[in-house]
C-alpha cells in the first residue's frame, strides 16, 4: 500500500495561527471559524466546478470572517496570513512517525489542497520534505479534495488502483472522499477533530500519527 498524507492540520499545526487571530479579532478562537469558512469555500467551488487557487480562497475566507465580525481586513493582513500558513510548524509526532514508516519501506505521498509551490515551502520549512517520495497538489488538476478526482490523481501518479492507497488525514470530509474513491483511510484525531462512527468508520484511527503508524505497520505491507 502507498500512504497518502493530508498536510494542513494533519501534519502541520495550524494552532500556530492563533496569535494572528488574537491580534486581528481579539479572540484566537476565530481561527476555527475562518478555517470552516475556508472549507466551505473550496467545497462550494468544487461542487460548482469553479476552481480558484487555495491562497485566493484563504484570503476570501479571512475577508468573509472579517465582515461577520465588523473587522476590515487589509491587503497586508491577508498577505500576513498567507505567509504564516507557509511557515507552520509540524506536530511533534510527525517527523519520528514518518521516519519510522520510511525505514519500514513504505512509499509516502503528500497530497494538499494548497498549491505545489506553497506546500513545497511548507514542508521544507517544517523539515519534512525529505520524508516524502512525492509531493502532489490538486492545483495540477484544478479539483479540490474531497472530490474523487483528487485521489484518482494520486493513483494515476503511482500507476496503481485507488485500492492501493491509504489516505491519512485529521478531517472526516477528506477520508469520506477518499473512501468513496476506493481508498483505505486512517484518521488522526487531532485536538477538536472527530468523526461520527454512525456516518463513517475509518479503517484505522488513533489520536497521534505515532499510534496510527504502528497500526499501519502491523496491518499493511509496503509496496
Total domains = 2
Shape: globular
Measure the end-to-end span.
Answer: 5 Å
Percent range for helical residues?
40-55%
The CATH topology of the largest domain = Rossmann fold
Structural class based on helices, strands and sheet pairing: alpha/beta
| CATH superfamily descriptor of the largest domain | HAD superfamily/HAD-like
Report the CATH architecture of the largest domain.
3-Layer(aba) Sandwich
Q: Count of DSSP E strands? A: 6
The helix count comes to 9
**Level-1 CATH class name of the largest domain:** Alpha Beta
Specify the biggest β-sheet: 6 strands, parallel
Enzyme class: hydrolase
Protein name: (S)-2-haloacid dehalogenase
EC number: 3.8.1.2
Organism: Chromohalobacter sarecensis
Architecture overview:
It is a single chain. The protein is α/β, with parallel strands linked by helices. The chain is built from nine helices and six strands. It has a six-stranded parallel sheet with strand order 3-2-1-4-5-6, with helices on both faces. α6 links the parallel β2 (107-112) and β3 (134-137). The longest helix is centred in the first third of the chain and has 19 residues, at 30-48. The termini are close together. The mean pLDDT is 96. Its EC number is 3.8.1.2. Keywords: Hydrolase. InterPro entries: 2-HAD (IPR006328), HAD-like_sf (IPR036412), HAD-SF_hydro_IA (IPR006439), HAD_sf (IPR023214), PGP-like_dom2 (IPR023198), S-2-haloacid_dehalogenase (IPR051540). It holds the Pfam family Hydrolase.
Amino acid at each position: 500500500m502507498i500512504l497518502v498524507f493530508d498536510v494542513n492540520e494533519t501534519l502541520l499545526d495550524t494552532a500556530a495561527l492563533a496569535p494572528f487571530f488574537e491580534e486581528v479579532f481579539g479572540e484566537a478562537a476565530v481561527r476555527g471559524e475562518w478555517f470552516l469558512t475556508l472549507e466551505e469555500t473550496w467545497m462550494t467551488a468544487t461542487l460548482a466546478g469553479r476552481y480558484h487557487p487555495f491562497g485566493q480562497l484563504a484570503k476570501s475566507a479571512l475577508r468573509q470572517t472579517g465582515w461577520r465580525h465588523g473587522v476590515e481586513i487589509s491587503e497586508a493582513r491577508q498577505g500576513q496570513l498567507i505567509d504564516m500558513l507557509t511557515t507552520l510548524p509540524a506536530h511533534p509526532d510527525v517527523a519520528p512517525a514518518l521516519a519510522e514508516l520510511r525505514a519500514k519501506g513504505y512509499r509516502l505521498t503528500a497530497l494538499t489542497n494548497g498549491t505545489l509551490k506553497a506546500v513545497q515551502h511548507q514542508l521544507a520549512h517544517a523539515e519534512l520534505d525529505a520524508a516524502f517520495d512525492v509531493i502532489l497538489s490538486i492545483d495540477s488538476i484544478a479539483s479540490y479534495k474531497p472530490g474523487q478526482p483528487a485521489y484518482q490523481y494520486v493513483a494515476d501518479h503511482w500507476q496503481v488502483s485507488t485500492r492501493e492507497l491509504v489516505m491519512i488525514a485529521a478531517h472526516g470530509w477528506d477520508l469520506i472522499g477518499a473512501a468513496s474513491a476506493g481508498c483505505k483511510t486512517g484518521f488522526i484525531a487531532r485536538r477538536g477533530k472527530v468523526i461520527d462512527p454512525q456516518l463513517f468508520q475509518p479503517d484505522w484511527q488513533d489520536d497521534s500519527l505515532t499510534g496510527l503508524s504502528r497500526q499501519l505497520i502491523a496491518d499493511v505491507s509496503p509496496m
